[in-house]
Write a structure and sequence with these properties.
Layout: H1 20-25, E1 35-40, E2 43-48, E3 62-65, E4 68-71, H2 72-79
Antiparallel strand pairs: 1-2, 3-4
């Protein structure tokens, strides 16, 4: 894991601020994008959230169907099932 040498304090309600440099680096837009939070051993990992297909985990050509995210490729495969 690469260290950027950036240290931020946690405020009294548990928040941290992602520095502008990181938001630019990962193309995170204020009030538009979100991050996913993962835990691995003793690490907290933040990842830019990108919706993906519930069937194949692809993030390409995603559509919302009844509250579920499905890619167009899987929709075609499902529609060909008889």
């Amino acid at each position: 894991m690469k260290s950027l040498g950036i240290v931020r304090r946690i405020d009294h309600v548990g928040r941290i601020v992602l520095p502008k440099e990181l938001r630019r680096m990962f193309d995170l837009e204020d009030n538009e994008d979100a991050v996913e939070i993962f835990v691995e051993d003793d690490k907290i990992i933040l990842k830019k959230y990108e919706p993906c297909c519930i069937f194949c985990d692809s993030a390409d050509n995603i559509v919302d169907y009844n509250g579920k995210r499905v890619c167009k490729s899987c929709i075609e495969k499902i529609s060909n099932i008889k």
